[in-house]
Amino acid sequence: MLQCLLLGTSGCHLCEQAEQIINACLLDNPGVTIEMIDIAEQEQWQENYAIRIPVLYHPETKKELGWPFDKDNVIQFINALIDCK
């Protein structure tokens, strides 16, 4: 199982677009889960990501995929993480 975080905030239209793109990619990758994180809930997330969201983040490797990204970018990111395991 591979778990990533989608860092964003509520009401962010770019974060909503990112979520749709990622969800489409998850249909082909059932072993991957994405947890939505509202950066407003933690000061550390706000400091690091306030002007960069949405960001797809893998906590184990600390690898990030920053916006803008498309389905191909997300698939490449996921495949690279799977290959690292």
- The CATH architecture can be given as 3-Layer(aba) Sandwich
Order of helices and strands: EHEHEEH
Determine the CATH superfamily: Glutaredoxin
Largest sheet: 4 strands, mixed
The strand order across the widest sheet is 2-1-3-4
Helix content: 40-55%
Q: CATH topology, what is it called? A: Glutaredoxin
Counted beta strands = 4
What does this structure look like?
- This protein has 85 residues and is α+β, with helices and mostly antiparallel strands.
- The protein has a single domain, classed as Glutaredoxin (3-Layer(aba) Sandwich), CATH 3.40.30.
- Helices cover 41% and strands 26% of the residues.
- It is built from 3 helices and 4 strands.
- The chain has a 4-stranded mixed sheet with strand order 2-1-3-4, with helices on one face.
- Strand 3 and strand 4 (63-66) form a beta hairpin.
- The longest helix is centred in the N-terminal third of the chain and has 14 residues, at 13-26.
